[in-house]
Hints:
Elements: H1 2-17, H2 30-41, E1 45-51, E2 55-57, E3 61-71, E4 81-88, E5 93-101, E6 106-112, E7 120-128, E8 130-131, E9 140-148, E10 156-161, E11 170-178, E12 189-194, E13 200-202, E14 209-215, E15 225-232, E16 235-242, E17 251-257, E18 262-263, E19 268-276, E20 285-290, E21 293-299, E22 305-310, E23 318-322, E24 332-335, E25 339-340, E26 345-348, E27 356-362, E28 368-374, E29 379-386, E30 391-397, E31 404-411, E32 417-425, E33 432-434, E34 441-442, E35 447-455, E36 464-472, H3 484-494, H4 509-518, H5 526-530, E37 542-543, E38 547-552, E39 555-556, E40 562-568, E41 571-576, E42 582-584, H6 587-590, E43 591-593, E44 598-602, E45 610-615, H7 617-628, E46 640-642, E47 661-664, E48 667-670, E49 684-686, E50 689-691, H8 697-701, E51 716-719, E52 722-724, E53 730-733, E54 746-748, H9 753-756, E55 761-763, E56 766-768, E57 790-799, E58 804-810, E59 816-826, E60 830-839
Parallel strand pairs: 2-9, 18-25, 34-60, 43-56, 50-51
Antiparallel strand pairs: 1-3, 3-6, 4-5, 4-7, 7-9, 8-37, 10-11, 10-46, 11-14, 12-13, 12-15, 15-16, 17-19, 19-22, 20-21, 20-23, 23-24, 26-27, 27-30, 28-29, 28-31, 31-32, 33-35, 35-58, 36-57, 36-59, 38-39, 38-42, 38-45, 40-41, 40-44, 44-55, 47-48, 49-50, 51-54, 52-53, 59-60
Amino acid sequence: MRYISVYIFLILFANSFDSTAQSKQLEDNVFLEKLRFYSKNSPSNLLFVHTDKNIYTNNENIWFSAYVVRSESVDFSKHTILSLVLVREANQKVQLQDKFAMENGLASGNMALPDSLPPGNYQLIAYTDVVDKNQLPIILFVQKLTIKSITESPFSVSTMLLDTVDIDGKLRVKVQLELPDPKSRVKPVVEYSIGKATPVVAKIDGNNTSIITISTDEFSEQQPTMLISARYNDDIQYVTVPLPSKLSKGIVAKFYPEGGHLVDGLTATVGWETKTTQNLSVPIQGILFKDNTPIDTISTTSYGVGAFSFVPDRKCRYSVQVEQNKILPKDTVYYLPEILPDGIALHLKQAVVNDTLSFQIEGQVGKNLQVLIHDYREGYASFLVAMQKSRVDKTVVLAAVPKGLATITILDEEGRPVVERIFFAHYDRRIEMSSEELKKTYLKREKISTKLQFKDQSNQPVQGIVSIACVQENRFDPANEQDIESYIFLNSSLGTLPLDPAGRRFENKSFLEHILLIKGWRKYTWQDLLTSSPGDTAQTPSSLTVSGKVLYLGKPLKKAVDLNIMKDVKDVSVYSTNPGGIFEIPYPDLLVPSGKALRASVNMQNKDGYSIELEDPFWEVNKNLAKTILITTSGLTSAGQSSRESMLKGMEHATQLKEVIVRVGGRNNSIYGGKRGTNACGDYVIGNVLYYPHISPLYYSTKDDPNRRQPKKGELYQDGIAKLSMSGELIGYIGDNSEWEWKSRKVVYSGCMAEQDKTIFKLNGIYTAREFYGFDEQLKDFTDPQLLSTLYWKSGLVINDQGEVDCSFFTGDITGKFRIVVQGIGSNDLIYGQQEFEVK
């Protein structure tokens, strides 16, 4: 029933977002016809993924909710699989890849980050199984993440860029290792690579120092990086070294006349944008010149955007002069665009508006113009303007225009577009979140119970579906933050926007006014639009499907065989291959709990020589996407780097030491057992209690403990899933429907069958959602410190008809500021809200 409600919310929102009602009957013209053809040939599909935070440590989980907000190519129900891919920016290689079940445009789950994951900058790429004719996803979302370490290492690595500029085509990097015992006989190993190149072993001298000399011919990236890994005993440290750009230092200035052009004698408002050659926004001040005469002092803001006005004279040349500064090596002159002898000027009083749009048209008297209001997908209003004087003021009611970005385009008498300006409609339509019960401060291990309320601009309750996270404040990097409102309404159309130091971009109207001024004529070229035809509207999306094959001695089969596919000991299905060994597993049978795998074997007595593989088209897509991700820098090149910088700051009393080994009776006993995590079967130990998730998926789905360790064959453990009678008789396992009394019994672990039997093959399935369990009341008196940066995570929460949703959780043992973030979809708008509190 929950999914039925969810689907209704999606449809209601999609209808609101894609409204085609019109305040006036649109007149038939070639432009509108071409616009419809073009929009159908370029359908809009939007995906957003809400992650619980954007700074993680290895051995944590990325908790997420995914929302297909718009799907014009196919119905929402056609998106059945969500693929998540974690790519490391330093080498653009796939580090992790998982698939998750999606229903009616919604998916949720978690991606476990292993201990071996190097600290650094990553990109989480999400897409669904629907692809175009080139086998590329029709819908894609990217979230920048940072992985840090909270584990103290016995050694550290520091680097120094000895040459900050290219000297005779060479650059030198100094690597210094700090070892706990410099005289140790154990020799460290240092490797380095640039971009996607194969790692090279560096020479280390007696002082544990290495001087690496590289040729600038080895890299071609605009902003290259060197990845250094150092191994000492069983520990590895990583450092990413930004290298000097091959581009010269300087500032790039671009000018954007409102409407698209400067016109002789007509007042012009010009937006301008300033960035470094590394594409970083930078504030500057300059002087506007008319020929050789200064006429104004102009500047860009802290996010590198500004605006100024003047009346162009075609007989003169206009330029902006910027004096030498830290980034600009010398005084530089930037010239404004060419001035047209004749044309139209368009001025918006405000581009961020509510229900009405006011604008002014300047041009020659006697011209007849047509004004269109549209969003590149639908037309909403069309009317004629007769220029009976050189300046005309107009106001348009935006009742038919949906909330978000829209465009005003003016056509000349021949139906050609001559000026254009984008604006944001219905900015005041916002869903506000509040909570009367939430206090400003809480104690450690205190219960928080709050009711979140959602109301629209008319103070009416709002229904919808949301995901809620409560996370430590220092786990959010402003440079990596994305919210569903800003992404869907702005970034998805305008591309990457500069960071707003004042806070969230969507809430800063001044920031939006500047951005909308410099983002124009952006969606297409008029040549593409005017050549669109009905034949361009044919779209044939397809779906990626997972299949498999059975081989004998590495070669294709010559006759069909039967397969056993096992989810657990009680769920075994049998499938037949075709004569060539190819088989398909129905989608429902691919679904497994998060972290589990399918087990497959040929159904015959002699299984030796057979192997089973999955043909997973997602893997090839993932590799291609990793190669094409856009790497953006967050600052200028630094001369020095250290592995200490990968430690998470602000984790007072929360730093983890390496695993402690306690000697008892001359024998090593890890306090948790064997290696971290689970073994190939998914079995694990917490404390001295043994759990078998492949036997008891119910128990597995209700546990989330970072202290899992792999069990050892032959060791004695407490049986964590046995169901016993009061007398101690085994009567079953957790997962049965009958009532039972749980008692513990001692068992000897017999080992993992998948590790022993070479005829059983592991196949990756599609994960179903897993529930998050944080610190709860049962653990309140637990003496071990509870160092949870994510206190609460819940996806798929339905807001009731009173506009309310309840959430309850406990604080842990980390003090400081925490943030509650809510994101999702309402019946007629997007939902974003946040609240803060402090733990003392």
